[in-house]
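Hello again,

I reread your note about wanting to compare the complex against the isolated chains. To keep things tidy I'm splitting this into two emails, and this first one only covers the full assembly. Below are the input lines as submitted, including protein chains and any nucleic acid or small-molecule components. They are followed by the predicted structure of everything together. The single-chain runs will come separately.
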Amino acid sequence: MSDLAVLQAVRLKGRVSRTDLAVTLGEDPNELAVVVDRLVASGLVLDSNVLRVSHDGRAHLDELLTEERRHVDVAVLSAAYADFRAVNTEFKALVTDWQLADGRPNTHEDAEYDALVVARLDDVHRRVTPIVDAAADQLPRLSRYSAKLQAALDKVHAGETMWLSRTLIDSYHTVWFELHEELILAAGLTREAEAKAGHAP
Amino acid sequence: MMRRNGLPVPPAFCVTTEVGARYRAQPGATLDAIWVDVLDAMRTLEAATSRTFGRGPHPLLISVRSGAAVSMPGMMDTLLDLGITDAVEEALAVEATADFARDTRRRFTDCYQRIVGGPAPDDPYLQLRAAIEAVFASWDSPRAVAYRSHQGLDDRGGTAVVVQAMVFGNITSNSGAGVVFSRNPMTGANEEFGEWLPGGQGDDVVSGTVDVEPIAALRLRQPAVYDELIGAARSLERLAADVQEIEFTIEDGTLWLLQTRAAKRSAQAAVRLALQLRDDGLIDEAETLRRVAPAHVEALLQPSLQPELRLAAELLATGVPAGPGVASGRAYTEVDAAIEAADRGEDVILVRHHTSPDDIHGMLIARGIVTETGGATSHAAVVSRELGRAAVVGCGGGVTTSLAGKLVTVDGNEGEVRDGSLRLSAWSEDNTPELRELADIARRVSPLRAHTGGDYPRLDRHSEAAVRTAMASGHSDVVSASPLLAMLAAIRLSDVR
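Full-complex prediction:
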């Protein structure tokens, strides 16, 4: 696995344990340890109970991301991001409806209500899959997001509904949020500019 | 009601609900049949206002709105500034100013486009006909149908249409528009409360997009108008025997009342206002108890930010309430600094331009979250709700800078950030004078008297079922942990019977 993939994963998680890092990257923990140890030794990653990216690591990561983008078709990624934005609005609305019903916290007592939200998630998943595929054609690293979205969706279908929106685990919302960040970067944009343009994250 | 009692209301006429019902079956024929009457009523409106519809030198503009028998807030369409054409715009420019004429034309065009669809015809009577049709049709709009179904309201009635002469708060410097409450609907204090926008129109005040002034500012600027407004508010309150929320417009120094309704109120105000109205002799004791819902009392017994404390603290920012709850702490704008402060044991409020995935650890240690951008479905909002954090999002640019380092309170229910660490507190049935007074009244009125102690059967819970059982067993006195709630339930049960 590349330094880029590892640094970016640590950056997106903010602070992450080695175990959780291996899970989110889908890598063998022992093989990952070799890379992480090297990044820690070179001062790019700080290791104090949890891993986080150092100031130098952040700068190095930005260089690696710029280098990665040098070989892609920006038009394809911009189009993928535009498509994503359309689905993003519906996704955020459905997560909000999952959390709140009629403006009050959803007690999840109404199975029919919850089932309707999950059906909307299925639809969102159908729409986002080709978008991630198109982006991953340019940036193969992103194909991991397809696998993580699918895994979260499978767990939701199996009745483990915390995998829809819970934080700190790779729930559908957590993965989506990180994917959103990746696509903004891949399209050569920043979140600040996106927020100002009315595509608030 | 306002007109009948001699209050200043712009002249108007009504196309009845019966016509609205006929319209649903036969739209074209129904309008053809009433058109002569509509034209007649327009002549009367012209005479009453000394203005002319569709031409100068003093053109009459009108609003067309729904007059449904049941209130469906925000559900029905309203068209404003009808009757404007090229010639009328020119006449308005001469009568008032070119800016006013242009602004009014723009408001009309936007409004007509949005509600009727398509560009407005240059014939004012065609505008009127299309507007009446649009209001009748909005009864069957998907959102109105959904609202009635949700509220269990009758679907068949149809709506009436009210055609009213427009008045303008944006016409001269001594004009404006606003909303006034006959008493404070947040704290329940017996004082006028409200806001107004000098030189603004009513829709500007309602939209919440412009900065309004407190109603006290009107007293300084136009004392006579202020006194007339407060007098009207008081007499409307007496007529309705309830606290009123009144929309008004001041047109060149003349007061006009547009709408009045029972004021929406906080739980604190519901209790205090019911007691005040009884003290003022406007309602009897049984009605006093009907004015307080058990849900009001239940809310008051939970710790919350009391409105008088909230309103006394300086308002630092407003935004979209995105995560319910109230939290206080020091504002930090960087995640690492926030985490270090929390590690030192500080209460932290995280303030960010927006949140990124890696902000999650800052959000986790924060008690409250504030952002500059984003709405109720933004990632910041979703994550805040997931973590159960009080959150206000979309507070606008510059908030990170202005809040940084301050001790603040985030009110995720109201969508506000206020200065200082504001303490939450709860009312209690034993110690809060208002609730004790209410319980005393209840013991005089309720078919079931509930006490905190004594030699009576014990009511284990104050649930409606438990109260019903006690009443069915013929008990007139019981002991309860929350006597007031038990008696409110008993009164409601006997009202239903």
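For quick reference: The mean pLDDT of chain A is 92.

B.
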